[in-house]
Amino acid sequence: MPETILVTGATGTVGRHLVRELVAAGVRPRALVRDQARGRELFGSDVDLAVGDFTDPATVRAAMTDVHRLFLACGNTADQVESECAAIDAARATGIRRVVKLSARGADRAAKPTFWRRHAAVEAHLAASELPATVLRPSFYMSNLFAAATPLRDHGVLPAPVGTAAIAMIDPADIAAVAAALLLAATIEPGTVELTGPDSLTYHHAAHHLTTLTGRPITYTDIPPEAAAQAMIADGIPAPAADQILEIFAALRHHAHTPTNNQVQHWTGRPARTLMDFLETHAAVFAPHRPGARDRDVLGV
Question: Where does the record place the NmrA-like domain (predicted)?
Fold first, then answer.
């Protein structure tokens, strides 16, 4: 009988790609979703849906019934540590035999970015649980460029408070491909895996690629952190979350995500996707604004 894989964060930036990777591999995964109709719209009939939420630990534990392998991913929320640690405890209690946790490059208890400290706390709890586990620490997501879709479309500007630092951005689909390889492998590969894109690029490089993609001049503007915070708050991001996002950009500005590696190719057998590959796949996001269109979720790090 095949082992059941549960994907938490199934409709998230990485989770939605992972579910499709597993289906393409001939596996019928179980996806934890808040909204059953939305989950069915995204994944069709090849996926078993479990309706639940990290804010309701009983639903997460119920979703783990008869599950053997778990992909653990939670949004960057104030209760992330409590939510993921409770899920780890439930995984141990229900007999799950393998965990792949989505973390972040730079996760450390002493890190300045709040998001990275939270991931480090969860990683520590996972290690203490003694569950067989692999932790994925991906670099800055290429999909974070979606945050600039509106100023890019309307004004030809790519704004970010990151200076001239080079960043080894990664396509979330590559993170999912590695997660799928680890979940489907015959044996667990314990430890921590850092994942990066193939190149270390500045936002100036990103603007150049976007100019090529869109056929019109796109200019990178290095904006002050205060201006970035005001723009995020105006877009509906709570002030504390905006401050935490700025902590990430400050770390990037100091080259926290500059080095690259070949771990995507090691685990998937193919090179990591380039930034231009990613932009071409999502060209519609940066096309002239359509009535009723919405920008994508951002900052998956």
Answer: 3-257
Closest CA to 137 of 105, 99, 174: 105
How does DSSP assign 35-49, residue by residue? Answer: -HHHHHHHHTTSSEE
Residue 100: other Cβ atoms inside 10 A: 26
Find out whether 251 and 190 touch, Cβ atoms under 8 Å: no
* 109-158 pLDDT per residue, tens: 999 999 999 999 999 999 999 999 999 999 999 999 999 999 999 999 99
Question: Three-state SS string across 198-209, please?
Answer: CCCECHHHHHHH
209 and 122 in a single domain? The answer is no
DSSP class of residue 4 equals: P
Sort strands 48-51 and 69-72 into parallel, antiparallel or unpaired.
unpaired
The answer on 107 and 47 residing in a single domain is yes
- Which positions ≥6 away from 275 have C-beta within 8 Å? 142, 169, 197, 199, 201, 205, 206, 209
Total number of domains constituting the chain: 2
Say what the pTM is: 0.95
* Crossing angle for the helix pair 172-184 and 15-24, to the nearest 10 degrees: 50
**Would residue 296 count as lying in a domain?**
no
Domain that holds residue 150: 142-167+198-258+269-286
